[in-house]
Design goal:
Layout lengths: L8 E4 L2 H23 L15 E5 L4 H12 L4 E5 L10 H6 L5 E5 L13 H17 L6 E5 L11 H4 L3 E5 L9 E5 L28 H40 L4 E3 L12 E6 L6 H7 L21 H5 L4 H5 L1 E5 L6 H18 L4
Parallel strand pairs: 2-3, 2-4, 4-5, 5-6
Antiparallel strand pairs: 1-7, 6-7, 8-9, 9-10
Length: 361
């Protein structure tokens, strides 16, 4: 499914564990490399005694941003959160490269955003970091590793680790109709790219992730990956067709002036299944609209931000969506089996919910 080698895959409990494993491993790799250079008195390390530095974006999933914030708070690491462009919704490659320091050990940028569906320029970041690493090696600086959380993109578009050029890639089963289990791809696991375990135990997964494997879930993950490998283009085409129809129907029912699509950025690709939309109106905050819906089940943002109350999504605000518009956001997703008839049901449900809130029904 991802174009990697079987020996480069470690099974985990899910995306959160995979992401934390990469971050913790990068810290350990940084310190191990510094320790191995410690004896070279004639060539003192340019980063001796410093904390490892991470680069990420302001729109990452909490399983990336929170571990990094925790490490920074504990003064274990330094972190730069690069803002995304308010024009494209993407992190800018130049901004990522400009944030690199002598102590940078890992760049982690998601492949597709889970709220907007915007595709990030990971292949270009990879090419630029590869060129930079050649110069850093000559200067005795640590190698910068590259990680992408591909949770949202898998099953919705082709994902290939060779095209991406990443060292680590996070896989999440339930995002492509598999079981709630995850995996981590590591390029040249243990040889080209080091990985240090967070857990210690019975030696399973070559000691990289000990604990008795959940074999039925792994088999389910494999079957889901097989289906994606065979059918990805068909899945993608169907979801795009139904999503585009959903957006057409929303505009037709509410009028183009009332509808604001929060994930349409000029020049930026987006996933085929995601529609992030606001219906303008002072009483039409996303949560209030969904509470009035009788058929539609949806969210106002990411599940990991469900504790925000009526506050707008930080991701949408980072992308430059105005506060009042972001408060009304609904994240509507279509799937492999979603039909146009179901779109009609959802749109009519939304129309009636809005009418009730505005006192017209």
């Amino acid at each position: 499914m991802i174009g990697g080698k079987p020996r480069d895959v470690v099974f985990t409990s899910g995306g959160t564990e995979s992401n934390n494993l990469v971050i913790r491993s990068a810290v350990r790799t940084f310190h191990e490399n510094e320790a191995s250079r410690g004896g070279a008195v004639e060539h003192p390390s340019p980063v001796e005694g410093a904390a490892p530095h991470f680069i990420t974006s302001t729109v990452e999933h909490d399983s990336i941003s929170l571990p990094l914030q925790h490490l920074a708070k504990e003064q274990v690491a330094a972190v730069t959160f690069v803002p995304v462009s308010k024009v494209s919704g993407q992190v800018e490659v130049d901004d990522v490269l400009a944030a690199v320091r002598p102590t940078t050990c890992l760049v982690t940028i998601m492949l597709a955003n889970n709220e907007t569906g915007v595709i990030m320029p990971v292949p270009e970041i990879s090419r630029r970091i590869a060129a930079l690493n050649q110069k850093r090696a000559a200067s005795g600086l640590p190698h910068v590793l590259l990680h992408t959380d591909a949770a949202q993109a898998l099953g919705k578009r082709r994902v290939d680790v060779e095209d991406l050029g990443v060292d680590f890639l996070t896989i999440v089963g339930h995002k492509f109709y598999g079981p709630r289990i995850g995996a981590l791809y590591v390029r040249g696991l243990g040889e080209l790219t080091p990985l240090y375990p967070m857990l210690f135990g019975g030696g399973q997964e070559r000691n990289f992730r000990p604990g008795t494997e959940n074999t039925p879930m792994i088999a389910g993950l494999g079957k889901a990956a097989e289906l994606v490998t065979k059918n990805c283009e068909a899945y993608e085409a169907h979801m795009r067709d139904v999503r585009d129809y959903l957006e057409e129907r929303l505009e037709a029912e509410f009028g183009k002036k009332r509808i604001h699509f929060n994930n349409r950025f000029p020049g930026a690709e987006r996933l085929p299944n995601t529609c992030n939309v606001s219906i303008r109106g002072p009483q039409l905050q996303g949560r209030l609209v969904l509470a009035q819906c009788r058929t539609l089940l949806a969210s106002v943002g990411a599940a990991c931000h469900s504790d925000l109350g009526d506050q707008p999504s930080p991701v949408l605000l980072s992308c430059g969506i105005p506060f009042a518009v972001a408060k009304n956001a609904l994240r509507l997703s279509v799937g492999r089996s979603t039909t146009r008839a179901e779109v009609e049901l959802a749109v009519q449900d939304l129309k009636q919910a809005v009418a009730r809130l505005e006192g017209q029904a």
